[in-house]
Amino acid sequence: MTVLKRLQLVSRPSLVNTWNITRRRHLHTDIYFGTTSLNRHSFLRADPQFIAQAITSPYAKIIFFDNSAPIVDTESSTFVSLDYSTIGSENRSIIDTWVKHNEQKSNSLSSSPVIHFLGLESTRFSPFKYKEYTGTPYFALEVSRHPTLSTRAYSATPTSKSLPTREEVNKYLSYRDANIFAHGKMYLEWLSTTRHCRGCGSTTIPINAGSELRCTSSPEKNCPIKTAKVSNASFPRLDPVLITCVLNSSRTHVLLTRNPHFPKGMYTHIAGFIEPGETIEEAVKREVWEESGLLVDDIKIVRSQPWPYPTNIMIGCVAVVNGDGNGTLNLEHDLELEDAFWCELDTMKKLVKEGELDENLTLLVPGVEYGIPNDTTLANKLFEYVAENY
């Protein structure tokens, strides 16, 4: 094991302490980025009448992103949100034009703001209604290419700012808002960066309230995407990523690993992408062997987490080493890991139950020279699962 100098525990600001306490209330039921509060009503995205009524409703909440980073009021730790009546006359005109182009599926959408319908939030006091559907409409809007929208978003409160890093998102956004952020970021980033058709290279436009991309090529170009019989539009890319907590065969130790880019002293699990043609179980076996040299079986799929950096779905698993003993580690296959070692289960349980945040949002306890990811991560939830079940 690499010898590390014990990291000094840092007293966190009151906001981060509150953040930590709030997260722990949800330890067994919710997961950061995945605690859903909106009903997406995905079938309404293609209903232009609904979209027009929803986005111009005084009860709607339009939340803003700047280069995929959420704009928040840091004083209240909530999204900056405006509605059609408060967004300003010039910006209302921009919204009106977008509504018309969205209904027509106009090629002019290529120069319109990137907007995505997030869903309806249902409460006992939801005055917006469309047919039998009620709730507060939520929309995500990317401001980076539209100065008047950007100016209005940042001037909404004296403490408006964007949160470009995961650490800042963790600091300010609740479980509920983190899920809305993840949803909005993954759609807006895809819509903003996928400007050309992967089949023919023509310009693409976002249709159905920013949920699909359509190629604008003419029939003569015979685009293989646009002319497909089954799916003639493009949908967001989502990459499945495994993260696996490995136990020794006697289930008394867990494998801790670290990559060179991790914060100082932080250890976690083996992780990697599922490749085409693999089951989850086979991908676990391959990734564990490639990174650590261990052969595993008794694989359990525990839980999952959306991960908006950039567009992943994390699949959390637990696996047990074949044979007797801890298993001999071999980190020389793909050279991804900087270090790995077997940690006693009791030490890991102590980190889960008693860990306090350091300046890098790593959980540490006095007397232990390493830490684990905080409880906004699936990695932490896997440690928690093992602590409770082994």
Automatic annotation (TrEMBL):
Database matches in SUPFAM superfamilies: Nudix
Q: Which cofactor does it need?
A: Mg(2+); Zn(2+)
Could you tell me which residue ranges the Nudix hydrolase domain spans? Answer: 237-365
GO CC list: cytosol; peroxisome
User: What are the alphabetically sorted keywords of the record?
Assistant: Hydrolase, Magnesium, Metal-binding, NAD
Reactions this protein catalyses: a 5'-end NAD(+)-phospho-ribonucleoside in mRNA + H2O = a 5'-end phospho-adenosine-phospho-ribonucleoside in mRNA + beta-nicotinamide D-ribonucleotide + 2 H(+)
- In short, the EC number is 3.6.1.22
Q: Name one GO biological process term.
A: NADP+ catabolic process
Q: Which InterPro entries match?
A: NAD-cap_RNA_hydrolase_NudC (IPR050241), NudC-like_C (IPR049734), NUDIX_hydrolase-like_dom_sf (IPR015797), NUDIX_hydrolase_CS (IPR020084), NUDIX_hydrolase_dom (IPR000086)
Q: Does Hydrolase show up as a keyword for this record?
A: yes
Which GO molecular function, any one, fits this protein according to its record?
Answer: NADH pyrophosphatase activity
Q: Does the keyword Magnesium apply?
A: yes
What protein family is recorded? Belongs to the Nudix hydrolase family. NudC subfamily.
Put simply, this protein is called NAD(+) diphosphatase
Which species is this UniProt entry from?
A: Cyberlindnera fabianii (Yeast)
